[in-house]
Amino acid sequence: xxxxxxxxxDSTRMLNLIAALKxxxxxxxxxxxxxxxxxxxxxxxxxxxxxxxxLLK
Length: 57
Hints:
The chain is an alpha+beta fold. Helices cover 16% and strands 35% of the residues.
């Protein structure tokens, strides 16, 4: 697997490589699906902020 031709060795590296891309930017991911490699074009979006829980009284 790869993000913009940079090898992905684990999920942390994948998240870091994607986080370095700017929202709105086009990127190419190399993925493995059904034991075959494929190149996928994506448009980078923004990651939603986590929703904080409400305080219980």
